[in-house]
Amino acid sequence: MSTNTIKWSDYYELTKPKVVMLLVFTAVVGMFLSVPGMVPWQPLVFGSIGIALASASAAAINQVVDQKVDEVMARTKSRPLPQGSMPIRNALIFALVIGVIGIGMLWFLVNHLTAWLTLLSLIGYAIIYTMYLKRATPQNIVIGGAAGAAPPVLGWVAVTGQVDPNSLLLFLIIFVWTPPHFWALAIHRRDEYAKVEIPMLPVTHGIKFTQLQVLLYTILLLVVSVLPFATKMSGVFYLGGALALGLGFLYYAILMMRVEDSRIAMKTFGFSIIYLMGIFAFLLIDHYIPLVQQWLNS
């Protein structure tokens, strides 16, 4: 295929932009939570871009590795590589170039620790999860979820230069959120995963068992989400939002077990995305409530 026929939109789709935007959002929240006031502009701008480019690189490598699988699955068969609208060589070069630029930006314009941790996250997702864990164990998403949970820690380190216990609470929230989020999708797409012989939990242990695991992890997530309040990292505003979102997630997890309808799994998956965006938004707003009150009283 001539490279003249390649569209820039194909490169954009190769990066899984919606996923990258969600990851960068959590990283930016991590930046703001790391300081009492405004984040310095350099780590905010270059840290966000560097983390975004590294995340996009990992997503592109994932699509290169999973090209044959993506050709079979309805959810992914319209991607550039399965459609044949982009040569694998171009996709791989693109992934490596933006990865190098992203890590280099973090190294030279942010700090070395952020660069190292981001590189480890890229390797964790693009190589350890995609090339090995995904096909090796039904616990793939649990173990591999550490890479996806790293962005708020990366954002925090980009500003402060060190890993803080509070940043690890943010990591823990996403880490526990990942299994019920992804297993809800896997339940809906169980037959497709079985067809491509990827041992997702619904394929190896059945839908009922997976639904139970979604429920148990959702209960654990509700408990974990209270920790920022319990440790005085966040206040009552965050607690109220976290409990409301957690109970909403729990409602869907219970509904998925009680109602024999595959569409409920997708509704659970959709709500899980709203949950993550919402809980990090509550964290951010709660963090600045004291400053707003101080400004109003001054």
Spell out the blueprint of helices and strands.
Elements: H1 8-14, H2 17-33, H3 41-65, H4 67-72, H5 80-83, H6 88-109, H7 112-136, H8 140-148, H9 151-160, H10 165-188, H11 190-195, H12 201-205, H13 207-224, H14 227-230, H15 236-258, H16 262-297
Task: Give a description of the structure.
The chain is an all-alpha fold and 298 residues long. It folds into 2 domains: 1-163, UbiA prenyltransferase (Tetracycline Repressor, domain 2, Orthogonal Bundle), CATH 1.10.357.140; 164-298. Helices cover 81% and strands 0% of the residues. The protein is built from 16 helices and no strands. It has helices at residues 8-14, 17-33, 41-65, 67-72, 80-83, 88-109, 112-136, 140-148, 151-160, 165-188, 190-195, 201-205, 207-224, 227-230, 236-258, 262-297. It is globular. The termini are far apart. The model has no long low-confidence stretch (mean pLDDT 94).
